[in-house]
Amino acid sequence: DPYAQLLLEAMKQSGCTVFNDRHFSCENCDGCVSGGFDAATSQIVLCQNNIRQQSHMNRVVTHELIHAFDHCRAHVDWFKNVKHLACSEIRAANLSGDCTLMNEIARFKFGLKGHHQTCVRDRAIRSILAVRKVSKETAEKAVDEVFDACFNDLEPFGRIPHSKADARRAYRDFQNRDRYNANL
């Protein structure tokens, strides 16, 4: 998957190599949660009982790898700073494919103008509420306060990948981004 390839390469370049047998865990989970990032162990948990399609698995892996990338590069205070959590959730919803038009149609959510941003905001709030015991108002306030900066932080993709083709282009650009400077 080009999304995962890019994120794994970016983490490696940031000094955080991921080992499949150490950093990924498949488990049965409660409710309808599909996965999570455990900051204490730097481990991505995939909820095998709630993931039924490869495309869903790819999105969950990408979403959680974005959290792992943020953990690696930004020293996120997951447990005490809800704004840090909000920022990573915004980035994950924005860059993972969670809010593609096809996914939103499958959820029976329609809209054109500003719909991607609305989806990202709503999914970030939902994710915060799923992992932290905070009020909806607290989650909304945190998302609203950091939304613009975090929505526009496109690292390591450099663009919002709306499709696998976009993700492949982003990965190719990422691999070649130092070539220009090397030729100067």
List the helices and strands and how they pair.
Layout: H1 2-13, H2 20-23, E1 24-27, E2 35-38, E3 43-47, H3 54-74, H4 82-95, H5 101-106, H6 115-131, H7 136-151, H8 164-176, H9 179-182
Parallel strand pairs: 1-3
Antiparallel strand pairs: 2-3
Helix pairs in contact: 1-3, 1-8, 3-4, 4-6, 4-7, 6-7
Keywords: Hydrolase, Metal-binding, Metalloprotease, Protease
GO molecular function, one term: metal ion binding
GO biological process, one term: mitochondrial protein processing
Can you offer a commentary on this structure?
The structure is a single chain. This protein is mainly alpha-helical. The protein has one domain (2-156). Helix content is 58%, strand content 7%. The chain contains 9 helices and 3 strands, in the order ααβββααααααα. It has helices at residues 2-13, 20-23, 54-74, 82-95, 101-106, 115-131, 136-151, 164-176, 179-182; strands at residues 24-27, 35-38, 43-47. It has a 3-stranded mixed sheet. The chain is globular, with a radius of gyration of 16 Å. The protein starts with a helix and ends with a helix. The model has no long low-confidence stretch (mean pLDDT 88). GO terms for molecular function: metal ion binding; metalloendopeptidase activity. Belongs to the peptidase M76 family. Keywords: Hydrolase, Metal-binding, Metalloprotease, Protease. One of its GO terms (biological process) is mitochondrial protein processing. This is Mitochondrial inner membrane protease ATP23.
